[in-house]
# Entry
Amino acid sequence: MSLHPKIEAITERIVKRSAPSRAAYLAGIEAAVRNGPNRKPLSCANLAHVFAACGDTDKARLRADVTPNLGIITAYNDMLSAHQPYEHYPERIRALARSLGATAQVAGGVPAMCDGVTQGRGGMELSLFSRDVIAQATAVGLSHDAFDAALFLGICDKIVPGLLIGALAFGHLPALFVPAGPMPAGIPNKKKAEVRERYAAGEATREELLEVEAQSYHAPGTCTFYGTANSNQVLLEAMGVQLPGSSFINPGTPLRAALDDEAVRRVLQMSALGDDYRPLGHLVDERAIINAVVALMATGGSTNHTIHWIAVARAAGVVLTWDDMDQISQVVPLLARVYPNGEADVNRFQASGGVPFVFRELLDAGLMHDLKTVVPDGMRAFTREPRLDNGTLSSAPAAAVSADESVVRTAAAPFEAQGGLRLLRGNIGRGLIKLSAVKPEHRYVEAQAVVVDAPQKLNKLHAAGVLPKDFVAVVTYQGPRANGMPELHSLAPLLGMLQNQGRKVALVTDGRLSGASGKIPAAIHVTPEAARGGAIGKVRDGDLVRLDSESGVLEVLVDAAEFAAREVAANTSPALHDLGRNLFANSRALVGPADQGALSISCGPPAHDGGAWDYDAEYELGCDADAALAPHEAKDA
# Structure
């Protein structure tokens, strides 16, 4: 089917906007490729260091320089349930590579912190910056010029974006991302949320709360809700850099092992010494980035990717904006409801049709680009389900109909005509809301502001019984420059409980929410942040705030002259105990705005100081004449 005209127009605009930076990126790849397979430039001393610790077979092959050497970047640690299965992957990969006449080495490890552990804790202030550390650590691992292709073992929140950014810095290398799969289903997410809210109301004991949490997070594998980790997997498949249908196959199963082995075989074929050279930097182009955003919107995925994928795009020389994401969301229907965007977990999503079903619907509707991917059949390969046929890996077409229409639907009969996210604009700034997770009756809130500069202060106001019946919690100084932009998921039980009582509540913040957050109308990532002098810092207790999710409006109803004359309130919260925070002072000082990827490292085209992209100039260049986008142009003009 031909591409949807609105997706085509948005793509053309991004291509035109990105032309200089994308050309520079591709030129860098071509310069690296001219050196040939990476070990050729190494001196004898360089090469001797590479194979010094190898066994005789691998040493002989690396000396001869005639077979591919596979680099492994791993995020293994055994505290994270999602990454614990990776413990024995390197030895399995080495053994299989050896049997195929190649070699494999662990090029390096990257940190992998767990936002589930650090929620509401001081360590959360390191979370967003860990993405950039992971990117740098990936680059360090690949810097030895000893590898002809790379496998990336990582799943969770900041880890996959960090690995992608680092991998794209070595875009001349073929690359494949290898998931380990979700843990089996535990307690229903809805029951867990109910107990959390009862605990916040003082109606459940700590022992009861711990028991439901333990029943939810109970085995090796990714957490089963559709948060940032599982959204990562869908976006990787949408870009064609992970094997088709591999995202949600459970750890320890024969099919998981077969897919892991196939990843090794395939990436070796893609190397410059194989027969199908496919460098990562050629695969991840403007169309691949569009596909990732389309998949995010169609599945109601994590809001964190409105930051991460802007950074990933920049690493490939592509300039993606929030306006692009918003316009894509208004074209793409919502095809999946997975917690917190529904009640099902990812195992049920997989059983209902999963990624192959959704991608088939999107491709047939002309909403995704067909791409060159890590497999020869392009994106159509991602509409097939992996199977084992007498121990041999095969695939079958996605189911013709959904196995559960409460979880997955067709493009002709979606849950909603528009996708998961919406861009908000107004005199407070620009922010985002996860519309798909909020029921229609809660999408408009107009109430007085309760302003705090730390989430803990809102909990104290509730404990003191002084919160108004209806209110908008405005939580400031939570942006990247202020404190590293921690997730504020710890507020969800309180605000969810108050909403259950029939009260009108909403959240407005320059911070982030967890990929697991939903239900409460929340304007997040508000830019410019308070620490940059943003207008969110001018909101005062008692101001009337309007959050209109459907119309994309975020404003304080205060006389314009009065509001302009106000000073940004100071941050009165004392600094947390360090927990390593002091080591990230440079990151806080250098980090860019959320709408430019919140990058604290140099990555792709230069950021613009504290402001959004110059949309007016872009439209004057004639980047988009499609009448369907005219309403957005009028808003920006």
